[in-house]
Amino acid sequence: MESDELFTYINLTDPTTNCTDGDGNNHHDTRRRICIGRCSRPVNVCLCNTIPREPLLTCTQIVILHHPHERRHKLATVPVLAKCLENCHVVIGRRLRYGDSPILDSLHDAAGENPNRSIDAAFLFPGTENFPSKEISEWKSSFNDANPRNHVLIAFDGTWTHAKEMVRASLPFLSKFATQVCLAYDSELDGGTIFSSDLILRKEPFGGCMSTMEAIARCLRVLEPNGVDIESSLIEVLRAMVRFQACFLKPMKPRTKLLKKVKEKDNNKDFRT
């Protein structure tokens, strides 16, 4: 997911960066200090008051493949998400394979022993014509069971390009036991930015794309008996992250050449229609 063209992100740990809050207080002296509470973030963007005091317990087990590059990204939501959920398991890597996760290994073995058995596992990623995906609510209703089930939800955390590569590399393993599911999306629409939503940290590639934290929250709303409350708690944390980031946005002067190209493209499109 590329950064928006009209702004840059300030390095939250750069001691040369200057920022003041609404009361005019300078945060230069706190920029290097790390919170020793639950969030482990710089103190000027501390989330301890927003993160649940006790990790939220879910029937669903969540396994997230976290791209190595995201570990260094200051806007990654997975480290915070892992502190919010009890049953959130993070695997660092570029693909999922046997031996990476005991939970997934057990599902793989169970599918091998009984291929006709219905496995309550799904991996979250938009489908294509060749590899269609079910909407997660449709997948859940296919079990036709009123009792809570111990689902396993698998997600991929990275840029859009990285996520596609991670899914492709993991398919030989996941396809043996997991169903591909998705949330509603529209690849024909432009993705949002931090300027268009209070839940977006980075420019999204197309409509319906969202951060890993928001995607997991939306899925748990569907899968969990108390999903609405869990979703609300996670969204509150994400919204706080976006508010903090908005304070550090540094406006840039419009790029004349870029604006000219956009205008020419629009003119050509109007001419063709």
Task: Please tell me about this protein's structure.
It is built from seven helices and ten strands. It is of the alpha/beta class and 273 residues long. Strand 2, helix 1 (78-84) and strand 3 (88-92) form a beta-alpha-beta unit.
Put the structure in a nutshell.
This protein has 273 residues and is an alpha/beta fold. The protein is built from seven helices and ten strands. The chain starts with 6 loop residues before the first strand and ends with a helix.
What's the end-to-end separation, in Å? Answer: 30 Å
Q: Give the H and E element order.
A: EEHEHEEHEHEEEHHEH
- Main beta-sheet strand count, sense and barrel state: 6 strands, parallel
Radius of gyration from the alpha-carbon trace, in angstroms: 21 Å
SS-derived structural category: alpha/beta
Query: Which strand order does the major sheet show?
Result: 3-2-6-4-7-5
The helix count comes to 7
Residues in helices, as a percent range: 25-40%
Residue runs with pLDDT of under 50 for 5 or more positions: 1-24
The percent range for strand residues is: 5-15%
Can you count the beta strands? 10
Q: In one word, what is the shape?
A: globular
The whole-number mean of residue pLDDT values reads 76
